[in-house]
Design brief:
Helix content: over 70%
Number of helices: 11
Number of strands: 0
Number of domains: 1
Largest sheet: none
Structural class: mainly alpha
Shape: elongated
């Protein structure tokens, strides 16, 4: 941003400069996406998945739990007696429409992935800020709790808690969210330790700013970049964890269609050559996770000040 010597007039809006910075940043992000190409493709895939999650009931051709025994195990693009294609992606062992279940399953993956990352990100960032800023015994307690959690395989902890609490979307979100906080806490702590001795923090203290103001309005904006990158990767990790737990029958109730649950139901049909029952949900999981990872790679490079170019 170029500084000018002209004073701000009374009619000039106070947020003109920040708004101009946002526009410049958005233009630079779009040019970077277009040049990189693959992140743009990943963004389009995630837009389709998000749209399916948002308006799934409106676009799904059938009720995902509606059974039609006479139409069970139909292959994709099968033609009926009238020469019409009834089931674009085929049906499962109970005659349920695979396409409808795939569309409804996107909602669970997106909601669980984003909600768990938000919960884990907020909890971990707050604890990391507190540990890094105050240090001492507060830092020791928070980091030792993090070390204890890291000492246990997360999937085993999730299975144990889900067996006790029972399957359910909210139970799954809370468990996966709590399992993610350690990563954010360790990164936020390290970044806060590096920032707390900077001049702008000393200036805020000299001006009498409260501790909460220093933490959340002074330090936090300067450490958001690495936390944002970690969040993009963690969404993919949470989606895989949800699929794994649903595959084991511990994620959500069987009546709720999920991609992991569809994979679990396809196990008995694979040997009989019903490939579509596993291929389509597997491709959906792979495409979504891969898209988040590609977008995370691009976001890491875009937010790296050493790689930024002026726009």
């Amino acid at each position: 941003m170029t500084a000018t010597s002209e004073p701000m007039t009374a009619g000039q809006p106070q947020d003109a400069v920040p708004l101009d910075d946002w526009r410049r940043t958005l233009r630079r992000a779009w040019r970077s996406l277009v040049r990189a190409r693959w992140p743009l493709v990943a963004l389009l895939i995630l837009a389709v998945v998000g749209l399916a999650a948002a308006i799934g009931p409106s676009v799904a051709p059938r009720d995902p739990n509606r059974q039609a025994i006479m139409a069970r195990l139909k292959p994709p693009m099968a033609v009926d007696r009238q020469g019409k294609v009834d089931y674009v992606l085929g049906t499962d062992a109970l005659g349920r429409d695979v396409l409808s279940r795939l569309i409804y399953g996107a909602r669970i993956s997106v909601v669980v992935g984003l909600a768990a990352v938000v919960i884990g990100g907020i909890l971990g960032t707050v604890l990391g800020l507190v540990a890094g800023y105050f240090g001492g015994w507060i830092d020791d307690i928070i980091m030792r709790i993090a070390d204890i959690q890291l000492a246990f395989p997360f999937i085993l902890l999730a299975i144990m808690f889900l067996i006790v609490l029972g399957p359910g979307v909210w139970n799954l979100i809370i468990i996966l969210g709590i399992g993610q906080w350690v990563t954010y806490a360790r990164i936020a702590r390290g970044q806060t330790i590096a920032q707390r001795e900077k001049e702008y923090v000393d200036a805020a203290k000299a001006l009498g700013a409260r501790t909460s103001t220093i933490l959340f309005q002074t330090i936090l904006p300067n450490i958001l970049a690495p936390l944002t990158v970690i969040a993009s990767f963690n969404v993919a990790s949470v989606i895989l964890s949800e699929a794994a737990l649903s595959f084991l029958g511990l994620g959500v109730p069987p009546t709720v269609p999920t991609w992991g649950g569809m994979l679990a139901e396809s196990r008995e049909q694979l040997l009989a050559g019903r490939w579509w029952l596993a291929i389509f949900p597997g491709v959906a999981i792979m495409a979504t996770v891969l898209s988040f990872n590609i977008l995370g790679d691009w976001l890491r490079d875009f937010l790296d000040p050493r790689l930024q170019t002026t726009g």
